[in-house]
Fold:
Amino acid sequence: MTFARSPRRRLLGLASALAVGALLLSGCGAASTAAPADAEPKTGGDLVFLIDSLGATWIPNNSSISSYQGQIWGNVTDKLVYVDAEGNLSPWIAESWDENADKTQFTLHLKSGVTFSDGTPLDAAAVVANIDIWAKGRPDEGINRIGLFPSANYQGAQAVDATTVTVSFSAPTLSFIPTLAYHGSILLSPETLALPADQQADLTKDVGSGPFVVEKVTEGDSVVLKRRDDYDWGPQAVGHEGAAYLDTITYKQVAEPTLRTASVESGQAQVAYNASPQDLDALKQEGLTVETPRYLGFVNGYALNTSVAPFDDIKVRQAVQHGIDRDEILSTVYTSDWHAAESFFQSTVPEATDHTADFAYDPDEAASLLDEAGWVKGADGVRTRDGKKLSLTLYPNPYLQASQSVDELVDQQLTALGFEVNLETYDVPTYGQKVIGNATVPATEITRSFVDVGTVAGVLTSQKKGDEDWFRLGTSDATLNELSTRIATATDREARAKVADELQGYVLDQAYFVPLTQIVQRVYVQAPEVSGVTYNGLAYASYLNTWLNG
Structure:
């Protein structure tokens, strides 16, 4: 079926044909109709995936958790465990696993015959090398540990034989097996892991065991993957046997979102990543497929820095919570694919509970809290206290397509309460340098995927070396420390769910976090000829089972 284009989209399509035709390394013809339900998959074809950024580094531990580089890593590497969109775990390279009664020792039973693309075996020794670097990293060399790996009580991993690994912790660690499905937990050859950081940063030297291998990297421009013909150990849950169908995948960097989507409209690419939410309904009407998978993890919101003014005052933090109209954000910026936050966990997380009342929009309550805190409105509408303005700088998150639009609305809403709000916008590399980890930034718009709720302690406090300490509390909040420890060391999942409810209530009552919306961070616009894409619980696209019917 052919859909009429609006004049604006006709112009975008023409611009795409002229601009992207010169940019893309490979192109395809006009989009064809979707495959019939009974169509047989066919081998061959080149898929072009347009992405906003290719990040700043390819060091695996540092880049695999990125919303951008994670796309590539997910197709050139495997994981020990698979997690689906509902959070269900199933075997992958680990065919099965056992755990002791107190959840301090786990035994992994590996699939035999798996090899890395250089022919070396993915055996127990290789798994031990990977688990060690996930848990510890090599920080002195600039190689991070994996942030949500349960490193705090990790004692070590041991190869019992070629296909058996035991992993030990000094305290109960229910989160260990689920974390093996996290997108940071990618399996790489021991030779890759032994490389110094500057060589690991060369993607062509990083060897995985996945269905695709790296064929070509053009720095700051594109990454080309090609099919690995001898691959035959995909996740059981995906139900695909043998090698991938596609010949190649080209990840091409195109910064402008309308140019990415117009290129899919004109048939010069098959996938556009991170389309603007405001464009999605029109794109659907044109016959394109729009996928908006939600991931397991935190909602999108602001982590407030309690160590700097004005957020060292709980009343100011609570005023921000109650001063933001989330319904206006949803109706203005997003589509029906987005949902209101009910806590600071996504509602898809099994342990998430509804705490909406703790941060409900109430501008009168917000104004009253600011009055109680001594902030008085001046003639210009800006509140002051002791001669200082109630000022706040927001930094739109470049990893989230609509972040700037959201922050502009929040600017208006908080300005009406008497805040002086400034916006500073950066690209991905600059944002990483100036905002992420900056102890002086008052509010960081942040979200994070995770597979298991037991791993969240590592981002909320700094009880252990390497913890992220989102709220800059250090170890000063004894209650948060205690709740975080209980959730990390629980031995019973039902009891842990009750702790998770307490934790959510406490963080929101203290207004350490300001929820905005449930996150759809990874938006995919696809041409109709793309069939068989699967999305895991982290909302990443896998192309193992994908084929082109055009």
Q: What stands out?
A: The two ends are 15 Å apart (CA to CA). Confidence is low (pLDDT under 50) at residues 1-20, 25-34. Residues 119 and 166 are 24 Å apart (CA to CA).
